[in-house]
Specification:
Elements lengths: L14 H35 L5 H57 L18 H35 L4 H24 L1
Helix pairs in contact: 1-2, 3-4
């Protein structure tokens, strides 16, 4: 079974973020419920306090008003939950999507040969710290390609000298082998991290 076929073993993979996000959603539900109850109370108390001239007529008026009151209260609750839900979702996902977008842009730049540093993540971003690791690897990658280009640039004139019979071919081959060995050491160091 491949790793992609195995389900996630831990439900809370980023416990502090997930617990806080769940707490925010629960807070939205609690606030919406309180708002609904408060709205229903405000709408009902007016009917109940307007006087008790006739219990039957008052009960009939409450019975007629109750569906309207509940409908208004429900729509106010839904509207409030949608607004708060949109705000929380945008707020939380922005803290994840922003860093992912920066990483996508950096990887795109890397395919074009730009190994410069990535723009750091903001303080509240959930992937803060990963930007430092990426920049360390970009620095190592940049150093590796600088050394690679230097080695390749040193090999080309030696090969040309061998082809044209200039200088000692054995000495030039030894220099090429040394440059390749140095390049292999740098590649091993890069792979090791």
């Amino acid at each position: 079974m491949s790793p992609s076929e195995v389900g996630r073993k831990k439900l809370l993979v980023n416990q502090s973020y997930q617990v806080r996000f769940m707490a925010e959603i629960i807070l939205v539900v609690i606030l919406a419920t309180v708002l609904s109850a408060l709205g229903t109370y405000i709408l009902m108390i007016g009917e109940l306090q307007s006087g008790f001239q006739s219990s039957e007529s008052k009960l009939a008026r409450v019975h007629e008003a109750l569906p309207k009151i509940l409908m208004v209260s429900t729509f106010v609750t839904i509207f409030a939950m949608v607004l708060v839900g949109i705000f929380i979702t945008l707020w939380e996902t922005h803290r994840v999507i922003g860093p992912v977008g920066k990483m996508e842009n950096k990887f795109r730049e890397m395919t074009e040969g730009n190994y410069g540093y990535m723009i750091p993540f903001r303080k509240g971003d959930l992937m803060k710290g990963l930007d430092d690791s990426i920049n360390i690897h970009l620095n190592n990658l940049s150093d590796f390609f600088t050394n690679y280009n230097k080695a390749v640039g040193g090999i080309d004139p030696l090969l040309t000298a061998i082809e044209q019979g200039d200088g000692d071919a054995g000495e030039n081959l030894l220099k090429i082998r040394n440059l390749l060995a140095e390049l292999e050491q740098q590649a091993d160091a890069f792979r090791a991290g």
